[in-house]
Amino acid sequence: MSTYYNKVKDYLLNLEFNIVKEDIAEELFVVENPEGGIANLIVDCEDPILIIEGVLFELNAEKPEVYKALLQKNREIVHGAFVLDESGKKVLFRDTLPLENLDQNELEATLNSLELLLSEYSEEIISYSKL
């Protein structure tokens, strides 16, 4: 286990995130913050980076207008971005941060960015998931 793992865990707990699952061997956490609308968010220590990733919705069909809207929204997201998984069907929120000099404020900024995205863009996300 790297020294980063415990540091990230402490940050998550300080930020009052619930650790739903913890995999010490893989050095990852699954966290939630129901008040912020965050569920099943993966926080993965992949030295030299921290990966923060969570599924937002699944696309039922290829919709160029949805892809375009998500890419345009990426420009407004403070930290992180919309991405597609390997199958091209799941839309995720993803951000990466360097572990070497990671501080709590950086992790908090990413998590706040996701919470803001979910609160401001939730109607659109729900409508895209129904297409």
UniProtKB/TrEMBL annotation:
SUPFAM superfamilies: Type III secretory system chaperone-like
Pfam families (UniProt xref): CesT_Tir_1
Name of the featured protein: Molecular chaperone Tir
Organism whose genome encodes this protein: Labilibaculum antarcticum
